[in-house]
């Protein structure tokens, strides 16, 4: 039996509608404040020893960006950083095709050997006025070129170092952009990207020949042993 009076029913219906609207608006607001990470795009899945490969650094949307510093790690479980693999050059994206700032006059990069297997790359620039970063319009930062030694064939990893990330606004004192915390959290949650070596054709040929010869030797020894037993 329903003991609710008509006014109570109307109140409950209105209250339920308000809750649905409130949760919907909350979900939309939450989605809007969760920023994307600083991304590495077009990282190849493979590389050839002795060759080079490139990838791009891309920014998420943010407001009033005036200065940035993005650090990357290039590493491997094998070889020696700076010798077997190293970042050779970093170039800013052309301003007329989507660079984050109207000018690249203050763009710069530097490299440092963190350990025997890790190289750090720092990319930075500033714009005193500050700009809004919009996807597809001015979200491009830099092209990174990596060189490898012909004698090195280990797997490589690249990753953004979120703990060194700087995204500041135009305030007199260094002040992070409004979206910094969300961008930082999204960036630190990213896994490193792995690039696998593809041996040169002649190396593959030698490997196949070695396997074939080894198989023939094993079969020959087996036949000799069988003859001796007989």
Give a structural overview:
The protein has 230 residues and is an alpha+beta fold. Helices cover 29% and strands 35% of the residues. It has helices at 6-33, 180-188, 201-229; strands at residues 39-41, 46-47, 52-58, 62-76, 85-92, 108-115, 118-133, 140-148, 156-160, 166-168, 193-197. A hairpin with a 2-residue loop joins strand 6 (108-115) and strand 7.
What is the string of SSEs from the N terminus onward? HEEEEEEEEEEHEH
Give the overall average pLDDT: 82
* Gap from first CA to last CA: 98 Å
Name the poorly predicted regions.
14-33, 202-215
Shape: elongated
Strand content of the residues, in percent?
35-45%
Rounded to an integer, what's the Rg over CA atoms? 28 Å
- What's the helix count? 3
Largest sheet: 7 strands, mixed
Category from helices, strands and their pairing: alpha+beta
The proportion of residues forming helix, as a percent range, comes to 25-40%
Can you count the beta strands? 11
């Amino acid at each position: 039996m329903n003991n609710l009076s008509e006014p109570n029913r109307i109140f409950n219906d209105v209250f339920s509608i308000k809750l649905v609207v409130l949760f919907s608006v909350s979900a939309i607001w939450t989605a809007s404040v969760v920023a994307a990470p600083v991304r590495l795009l077009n990282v190849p899945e493979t590389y050839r020893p002795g060759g080079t490969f490139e990838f791009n650094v891309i920014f998420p949307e943010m407001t009033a960006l005036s200065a940035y510093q993005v650090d990357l790690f290039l590493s491997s479980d094998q070889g020696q950083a700076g010798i077997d693999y190293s970042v050779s050059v970093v170039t800013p994206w052309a301003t007329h095709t989507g660079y984050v700032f109207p000018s690249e006059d203050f763009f710069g990069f530097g490299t440092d050997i963190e350990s025997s297997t890790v190289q750090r790359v720092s990319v930075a620039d500033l714009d005193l006025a500050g700009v809004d970063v919009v996807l597809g319009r001015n979200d491009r930062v830099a092209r990174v070129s990596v060189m490898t030694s012909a004698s090195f064939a280990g797997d490589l990893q690249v990753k953004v170092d979120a703990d060194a990330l700087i995204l500041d606004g135009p305030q007199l004192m260094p002040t992070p952009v409004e979206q910094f915390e969300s961008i930082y959290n999204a960036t630190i949650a990213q896994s490193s990207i792995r690039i696998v070596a593809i041996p040169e054709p002649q190396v593959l040929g030698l490997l196949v020949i070695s396997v074939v010869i080894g198989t023939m030797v094993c079969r020959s020894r087996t036949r000799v042993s069988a003859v001796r037993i007989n």
